[in-house]
Amino acid sequence: MKSKNIFLCVVFTFFLACLPAQGFAKQTLVYGTTEKITDMDPASAYDFHTWEIFYNIYQGLLKYPPGKTNLIPGLAESYTISKDGKDYTFQLRKGLKFTDGTPFDANAVKWSIDRVMALKGDPSWLVTDFVDHVEVVSKYAVKFVLKNAVAYFPSLVASPPYYPVNPNVYPKDKIIRDPSELKGGKLVGLGPYKAVSFKRDQEIVLETNPAFYGDKPKNDRVVIRYFADATTMRLALTKGELDFAFKTLNPSDINDLQKSKTLETIKAQGPYIRYLCFLTDTPPFNDRVLRQALASAINRKALLKKVFLGQNSPLYSMVPMGMWSHTDAFKVAMGDGNVALAKKLLASRGYNENHKFTFDLWYTPTHYGDTEVDMAAVLKAQFEGTGVMKVNVKSAEWAAYKDNWKNKVMPVWLLGWYPDYIDPDDYTNAFAGTAGSIGMGIHFSSPLWDKLFVDGQIITEPRKRSAVYRQIQSMWVDDVPTAPILQGTLYLFAQKNIRGIMLSPTLQFNYGPIHRVK
Amino acid sequence: MKYSPAAGTARLISRFTGLGKKYGLEWWILVVGALIILAIVFMALFSGTIAPFSPYDQNTGPQLIGPNAVHLMGTDNLQRDVWSRIVWGSQTILRVAVLAAVVSSVVGICLGLLSGFSGGWFDRVGSLVMDSVYSFPGLILAIAFAAMLGPGVINIMLAVAVIYIPTYFRLVRGQTLSIKEELYVEAAKAIGASRLTTLWKYIFPNVIATTAVVFTLNVADAIMTEAALTYLGLGLPPSIVDWGMDLAMGKKFLPSGHWWLITFPGVMISVLALGFTMVGEGLAEILNPRLLER
Amino acid sequence: MKKSLARYVIIRLLLTIPMVFILLTIVFVILRVMPGDPVSSMLGGHAPEKVIEQKRKELGLDRSLPVQYVQYLWQICHLDLGESMIFKERVTKAIADKLPATVELTFFAMIITLFMGVFLGAYAADKRRSSRDYGIRLYGIVVYCIPVYWMGLMLQLIFGIWLNILPIAGRLGARTFASDFERTGFYVLDTIMARDFTALGDVLIHLVLPAFTLGIVLSGIFVRLTRANMLDVLKSDYILAAEARGIPHRKIVYKHALKNAFIPILTMMGLQFALLMAGAVLTETTFSWPGMGRLLLERIYLRDYPTIQGVIIVVALVVAMASLLVDVVYAMVDPRVRY
After folding, report:
1. What are φ and ψ of residue C83, in 5° steps?
2. Does residue B77 contact residue B64 with C-beta atoms inside 8 Å?
3. Of A291, A364, A398, B59, which one has the fewest beta carbons inside 10 Å?
4. Which residues in chain B are contacts of C322 at CB distance < 8 A?
5. Chain B adjacent subunits, 3+ CB pairs under 8 A
6. For residue B222, which of B165, B174, B170 has the smallest C-alpha distance?
7. pLDDT tens by residue, A56-103
8. Which of A330-335's residues contact partners 24+ apart within 8 Å by CB, and which partners?
9. What are the beta bridge partners of residue C15?
10. Does the predicted TM-score (pTM) go above 0.90?
C-alpha cells in the first residue's frame, strides 16, 4: 500500500512539474492598420509604422517606457558625457545574445552604426549629421564621438537607425527589404518579440522572444493585418475580426466608432503636424507681408470641422502642443481666421476686390491620405473668402511634389511632418535653419535665426533652451517661413476586453503590455 | 453588302423616317437614348440656371445631410450641394468623352483610310501596332497615359482618346480594303480620278454609316473610361467638378450611412453611358441588324 | 492533323512576341517622359544632390533613352524583369506575389460571366419577342453601363453593411492566416491541398462579391452574343428535325442548340479577357484585393518604372495567352481556321 501511495505521489509531482509554466493560455492579438512596412532594415526604414515594429523586435541603447517621454536605459545600462559634450560613452548590458548565439557587445554596436553610415539610407542623416565616428572602448563599453555637442543626442540614440543589429545576419553592404533575404530567413533582434512570418501588404506575425532581457510580454503572439483602405478596417473591427485598429481611420469612421458600445476609444495627442510652406526667396512670397496675410486668413477651427469632422487640434506654432517651450504664437499675434487682418495686409500691398492677389496653392493627393484634397479646397475657399485673393489649386503625386519643391516650382504648398526625434529643434531648424530650409524648398535664411538654432543645440540647461525656442516661435509669426495649421490626434480603437494599450507622443507603441481579459 | 454612295445615303434617310411601327423595340431604344442624352446636354448647357448653388460653395447648408427639399441630393462633408455638383459635373464628362471620341475617330479614320488604301509596308506595321493596342486592356493603357500627362481636362481627354484609335482604324481599314475592290472604284480609276478623289468621294461616304454607330458606342465607352480614371484619382484637378471624383471622395462615408454621396454620381454615370449605348444599339439594329458582330 | 494544329499554335505564339514588344515600347517611352523623378522619391527628402546623382547612375537613368531601351530589351531576353527602382525587390517576385490573386479573381468572374451571360442569352432567344426577351436584352445593354466600382460599392453597402452577410474586402478574414496554408498563391487550391476546409470557406466567401461584381458587369456582352447566335442556330434545319422527332424542347435549346452556338462565343472569350483585366483593376481597388491592378496603381504613383513595365508585360502576356488558348481550342474543333 505504502509504496503504491509513494509511487502515485511521485507520478503526480512529476506531472505537476511538467505542466506549462504560464499562468494563462496562449494569447494571440490581431492588430489592424492601413500603414505599410517598407524595408525591414533600421538603416533604411524611415516611416513610423516600420519603426513601430522595430520598437518591438529590436532595442536601442536607450528607450522610452510605454506611454512616456522620458528616456530610460535600454541595451545600455548607463552613459557618461564628456566635458565638451562631444563624447558619449555607453556601458552596455552584459551577457545578452542574439538568438543565433551571436553575443551582443560593443563590436555589434559599432558595426551597426558603421553600416548605417556606409549604406546612406533615408534616415542615415540622423546618424551622419551628428556622429563623427564610434569607438569600441572595451567589450561592453562603446563611445560615440560627435561632430558637435548636441543637447538632444540621447533622444537620437533612442531612434531606430541607432539600433544594433546582428552582424552575422545582416549583410554589411546591402539594405534588406524582406526578412527572407537575411541569413536564416528570420528577423531576430534583442527585443521582446521576434518576427516569425511576413507576407508583404497582408500580415506579419510576431511571437515573444524568450531571450529578451526585460519584462516578458503579456501576450504570446501579435498578428498585424494590413488593410488597403480604412473603410474595410473599420468594418473588420466592428465585426470583431480585429482586437484593435490603429492608423488611419476616416474621420467619419472615427466619429461613429467613438459612439460604439462595444469598442473602447484610446486617444492621444499626436506629434505630427500639418502646415503651409512658402518659397521665401522668390516672388510673390519673398514678401513676408503676403505670407503673414495668408497665415492670418487660415480659419483652423472651420477647416477641422469640414475636413476632419471636428477631429484633430488647431495648431498655432510649429512646435507642437505637449512639447516643452510650445506657445500659441500665431493665435496671440493673429487670432484664427482673421479676415480683416488679411485684407489689411494685402491692401498694404495694393491688393483689393478689383486687383486680387492670385497664386497657385499645391498639395499632394495620396501621400498624407485623401483628406488633402478637401484641405486644399477649404483653404482655397477661405483665402478667396477674403474677397481679395484668387487661388489656383494644383496637385502633384509625391515623387513629382518633391521634385517641385526642389526646383522651386511651387510658391506655397501643404506639407506634413512626423518628428524624427522628440525635440523642438526637429520642428523648427529643419524648416528655417539655412541648410534645412534649402532641403525643404523654403530657402529661408537669416543669420540671427541660425545663431539661435545653434544655441538651441549647444545649450543644455532646460530653461535657457526653452527661452531660445520661445523666441524662435515669436519670430516665426513675423517672418512666417511656414504657417502651422493643425496637430493630429492619434486614435486607436480596441475591443472592450483589451487592456494595456498605451499611446505616446513619441509614437512608440509597445505591444508587450497589451492583453485580453475575459 | 453592295453599296453605291448616293443610294446608301438615301436609304439611311428613308430608314429613319420609317418610324417605330416598323422596328419596334429598336426604335424605342433609340428614342429613349436620345432623350436621355438631350436631357443631360441640356443640364450641361444651362448648368448655371438649373443648379441652385455653386458647386464650389462650401456653405450651402448643414454638413452631410441626406436628400431633402432644399438639397435634392444632400450635401457632402464640405457642405456643398450634391445636386449642384451633379449638374455642373455633366459638363466635364460630356466634354471629355465627346472630344475624346472625336479625336480618336478623326485620327483613327484617317489612319485607317490611308492604311487600307495604300497597303504595303505602312499597312503592315500600322495594323500590327493597332492590333497590339486593341487587344490590350484599354483602361490600363489609359491609366499609364493619364499618369504621364498629369491632371487636366485636355490631358484626360487625350488619355481616353488614344485607346480608341485602333477601333476606328480597324473598322475603316477593313471597309476600305473591301470597297477598294468594288467595280465602281475600278471604274473611277479608269476614268482618271486621283487617289485623293477616290478616297474622298467613293470610299469615305460608305464608311461613314458604320462609323456613326461606332462613334456613339465609343462615346459611351469613353464616359466609362473617364469616370474610371477620375475615380482612381488620375486625370483631373479637384477644382473641376466631376462625377467620378465625387464618387471616389464619397466612398469613405459609406459605412457611416451617407449613401447619397456615391449613389447619385454612380446613377448619373450609368444613365449617361446608357443613353449613348441605346442610341448606338438602336442605330445599329435599324441600319443593319448584322452590322456589328460584337 | 496534329501537325497542322501544332503549326497553328507555334505561329500564334510567335505573333504574340511583336505585340508584347510593341506594348512594352510604348509604355517604356511614356514612363520616361513622365514628370516626377523616381530617384528623389526613393531617397527621401533629406538626400543631398551628390547621393541622388550617384543613385541615378547606379540605376542607369543617366544614360540616353535609346541606350536605356536597348539595355532593357537585353534584360528581357534573359527573362529578367529587373529590380524595382523604389524598393529593393525583384520585379518578378513582386508580380508573382500578386498575380495569383488577380488570376483567381478573373477566373471566377469569367465563370460567372459565362454562366449568366450564356444562360440568360439562350433563355432570351428561346422566348423570343416576349417581354422576358426584351427584359433580358435591356439587361444586356444596361449592365455594361454600370461602372464596376459603383456596382461593387452598392453590393458592399447592401450585403456587407446593411445585411452584414458577406465580407467586403480582402481575400481572407482577419483571423485566417495565409501563412497556414499558402503554397501556390491560388488560395482555393491551397486550402484544398492543405485540407483546411474552414479556410476554404473563408476564401470562397471573400470571392463572392468581387467575382460577382466583375462577372455581372461583363455578362451583358455574352447575353447579347449568345442570343444572336442562338437565334441563328434555332432556325437551322437540324433543330427543326429534332423538334419533329419529339425531343423535349428544353433539351433542344439548352443542349443541342447551345452547344453549336457556343463555339463563336468561345472566340469572344479571348477578346473579353482584356476587358476582364481592365475591370479587375477597378474591382481590386474597390475590394482591397491584393492583386496586380493595385500593384500597378501604387507603382505608377511612385514612378517605379521597372515594376510598371513588368506589370504591363505580364498583363499583355496573360491576355495573349488567354486569347491563344481560346483560339487553339477553336482550331482544334474547326480545322478550317488553322494556318
Report:
1. -115, 145
2. yes
3. B59
4. none
5. A, C
6. B165
7. 999 889 988 887 878 889 899 999 998 888 899 999 999 888 877 788
8. A330/A295, A330/A476, A330/A477, A330/A483, A330/A484, A332/A477, A333/A474, A333/A477, A334/A292, A334/A295, A334/A296, A334/A477, A335/A296
9. none
10. no
Distance in angstroms between the alpha carbons of the first and the last residue of chain C = 12
Determine contact, residues A288/A499, Cβ cutoff 8 Å: no
**Residue in C22, C145, C149 nearest the CB of B273:** C145
Flag whether pLDDT at A432 surpasses 60. yes
Find the CB nearest C44 among A46, A205, A225. A46
- Cβ–Cβ of B136/C150 closer than 8 Å? no
Interface confidence: ipTM more than 0.90: no
Report residue C13 as a C-alpha cell: 505564339
The model's pLDDT over B80-134, given as tens digits with 9 standing for 90+, comes to: 999 999 999 999 999 999 999 999 999 998 888 888 878 788 888 888 889 888 8
Return the closest-CA partner of residue C294 out of B223, B143, B227. B143
Rounded CA separation A92/A35 (Å): 33
> B198-224 burial string, b = 16+ CB within 10 Å, else e?
bbeebbbbbbbbbbbbbbbbbbbbbbb
> Is any Cβ of chain A less than 8 angstroms from the Cβ of B201?
no
Q: Coil, strand or helix: which one is A166? A: coil
Query: Is there a contact between A272 and A487 (Cβ–Cβ < 8 Å)?
Result: yes
Dihedral class, residue A335 (left if φ above 0, else alpha if ψ from -120 to 50, else beta): left
Indicate if the alpha-carbon torsion angle A321, A326, A332, A336 is positive or negative: negative
Mutate to test the interface with B, among A229, A239, A250 (most CBs of B within 10 A): A250
pLDDT tens by residue, A20-65: 444 445 788 999 999 888 888 898 888 889 999 999 999 889 988 8
Residue A367: φ, ψ to 5°:
-60, -40
User: Residue written as cell 508585360?
Assistant: C313
∠ Cα A149 A153 A154 (to 5°): 140
CA distance A247 to chain B (A): 15
Classify B173 as helix, strand or coil. Answer: helix
CA of A350 vs chain C CAs: smallest distance (Å): 36
